[in-house]
Input
Amino acid sequence: MARSVIEEIKERLDIVEVVGRYVPLKKSGTSYKALCPFHTEKTPSFFVFPHTQTWRCFGACGTGGDVINFVQKREGLDFPETLRMLAREAGVDLDRDRDPQLLARQNLLRELNHLAAAYYHNLLLNSPAAAAARAYLQRREINDETVRRFQLGFAPAGWENLLAYLREREYNVEDMEAAGLVVFSDDGRPHDRFYNRLMIPIRDLQGRVIGFGGRTLGDGEPKYLNTAQTAIFDKSSTIFALDLAKRSIRSRDEVVLVEGYMDVLSAHQRGFTNVVAVMGTAVTKQQLRRLSKYTRNFVFALDADAAGANATLRSASVIRDTLTRSQVPVPTPWGKFRYEKRLDAVVKIAAMPPGQDPDDVLRTDPALWQQLIAQATPLVDFYFDMALKEVDLNTAQGKSDLVRKLIPTIHEIDNPVERRHYVGRLANLAGVTEREIDLELESYARALSRTRRREEPPAVPSETVEQSEEPPLWPEEAATEAEAPAATRPTIGPEEHILACLLARPQLILWADGALAELRVEPVSSEDFENSVNRVIFDALQEFLYSDADEIEEHLLEVLGDFTRTYLDELTTYADALQNTDEDQLRKDLINSVLNLRLAHLKQARRNFETELRHCGNDKEQRELLGRQLVDNTRQTKLLEKALSSRSASTQWVSEALRYSFST
Output
């Protein structure tokens, strides 16, 4: 199973050795301690526990996990990248559990694209026929280093150049077509897809060639021709140059998005390596979710013409719809809690001078480019500017339209100081008082709340709940009901059960936060899960709630990587068994499971503290730290026990279920 591969990685790596490469660890009792690498502190509060192969910060971070989680957090990598890195070190083959036929097929298509890239690149460097392509690059001031770094190439005129080259190496035409390199004419004859074009290889995150962008060198149309959809190339989720830009994006905590390949080449050549291009005029949700793993700061540097502005508006709309999170529950006067989607990203617009695109600016004045990016306009100001171009403020209707257009944007602003600034600006433009804008915001918020309530599932009355309560499902019963193989049952533990409940009803994440808030307990978070895979699944489930992804399994695979498919299949099989569970029973089940899981974690932590106290000797600082942790542990335990006792449903079955052993 995919999970066994992950467990094998952790078994082969010593967490003390791995963590010790990043921070100097000092032996302390049976554990090791250090200054936390994730926040500034003077007294060590970061501990590594060899016997459980886990780590935890007992200071400001309050986070912890296993060796995979530590490296992911420290390196700033996504989950698949972290696993690949650690798998290489541990000598574990991540692909061993994947479908060998599917894997072989994908490898073949990448191999064909790799050969094509090498073929095109050699022609660009050496063929007399590529003189026009080399002259074009010279006019665009693309130097030799950039040509080699991006492996730029040339597809010569003619219909069967690449076709003949690959046939000589005994590849068949059907595979060439599947790789996006060859197409068939109406009479059934194969020919090269690209000819007389400058060839720009498109790579995946691992730097493997998956497709091409070809720019015509003559009068042919289209000006740019991309690889068609294939088993390894998906235009809607691919980001040009992300393989080269991802580390720079992380280190600068900012990504700059441009429209064209040449914009990217020009930027990277001049040292602006956090620049990427989307495969289209506007960013897609799939591209955005991929980029959001590296940063939450987006700068759009698109052309200043109307088309560029419209593309920016579409991209901004995608960001607003995609990068939202549920916040800490907000109490209402009726003793309940409400949730509001808030933009969890900083989006700015860098407007190019009239008549220029990013490449023009980069070639003529790199310092101006740097200034434009640094002084990019915040998204809300951009919305104001665009709205002002569409209305006539000399008329009452124009002022009304301006308010109508901008109220949803101002509503999304979470910072009260920023919100008040834009309320004042809109009031001044519309010639009304700030109080009148506030009333419009309140009216919009009420309408939005009514819409959301209509979308929520109806609540079940408590008396009905008591009468219809059924024995809860747990691995044995669920597997039986779904007729799942017996081999899947031992893999389901408390963490997996919680995730299965959320997979069965994703909207329960929002409901659970409110239910826990009423118990004065923290919302569910990834910190509740000790298993690294489960943490990533939970975060991905939250992302799914605010995305337009049609299939949750596809979204999870995109986040976790295809080598987790077996584990996800097993988890979703169990989740399917919960689909027919009574809604209220599932809700009680979920809350009780979370509370009991946290109690189990607290008890394990208490045992760790007590063990360390017995072995820390005369280390005064550590004794004080552990003493404080024990006091806090006791407080949290009592709070959870009180929360459990206040619930009407019996929790005995959950306590029994927690006796199952499960891997972390």
Summary: The longest helix spans residues 583-615. The mean pLDDT is 82. The radius of gyration is 28 Å.
